[in-house]
Write a structure and sequence with these properties.
It is a single chain. The protein is of the alpha+beta class. The protein is built from 3 helices and 8 strands. The strands form 2 sheets. The chain has a 4-stranded antiparallel sheet with strand order 1-8-3-6, with no helix packed on it. A 4-stranded antiparallel sheet has the order 2-7-4-5, with no helix packed on it. β4 (66-72) and β5 (77-84) form a beta hairpin. The longest helix is centred in the C-terminal third of the chain and has 69 residues, at 140-208.
């Protein structure tokens, strides 16, 4: 349990604090920008993106478009939008691992630079608490209690997830140590064999030359 203390502490801090990621980045035409997020199985994830309009009150030029795709680590696609100014996605992750959101801007001459605003929320932060409060007609205290309940469940799931990852790492370490042991043994055998062959070759050479 000692080895789990620090990552568990970090996980709890992450779950108790807002787990949304809102960023702005520049994307040059003809280039791709990808952002990854580690998502647990069956966790809810919500994302929305838009091209920032630096000229307020005026429409974006037709040249300012982007293509967006969200894929899992196994290559499955969960969202795709082509030639858009903005978009959003939401799904419950059917598989565990890193999910990648990639943005691509069509090539232009001369090149243009887009500013993209992207917000990605997962887990408890991905839930629409405002609508939950409205639909359930519950007061703020009950809403906060529900948030805490879901946070506790998320912490429990994170604990189990970290334990599984630790067991996987221990098995990997055992397998790696075993392979390294065999590799070292085979390297020693090869070195001794080569040394033996060199001694035999030199002995044979000296015998032919009648030096010994």
């Amino acid at each position: 349990m000692g080895s789990l203390a620090f990552p568990l502490f970090i996980a709890i801090l992450g779950l108790l604090s807002p787990t949304s990621e809102s960023i702005q980045f520049e994307l040059q035409s003809g280039h791709t920008k990808c952002i990854a997020e580690d998502i647990k199985k069956n966790s809810m994830t919500v994302g929305k993106y838009t091209i920032v309009n630096h000229n307020e009150g005026q429409p974006l030029p037709d040249s300012l478009k982007l293509t967006t795709r969200v894929t899992s680590s196994t290559g499955n696609s969960y969202h795709y939008a082509d030639n858009v100014e903005l978009g959003q996605f939401a799904f419950a992750a059917p598989e565990e691992g890193d999910y990648m959101t990639c943005f691509w801007a069509p090539d232009h001459k001369p090149p243009v630079t887009l500013t993209v605003d992207f917000e990605w929320r997962t887990g408890v932060a991905a839930k629409d608490w405002t609508n939950i409060a409205k639909k359930g007609t519950i007061d703020m205290m009950e809403l906060e209690l529900k948030k805490l309940h879901d946070t506790v469940i998320s912490i429990q799931e994170e604990i189990f997830y970290l334990r599984e990852r630790e067991e996987e790492m221990q098995e990997m370490n055992k397998s790696t140590n075993s392979k390294m042991g065999w590799f070292s043994f085979l390297s020693l055998v090869v070195c001794l064999s080569v040394a033996g062959m060199q001694v035999w070759h030199l002995k044979t050479f000296f015998e032919k030359k009648k030096l010994i």
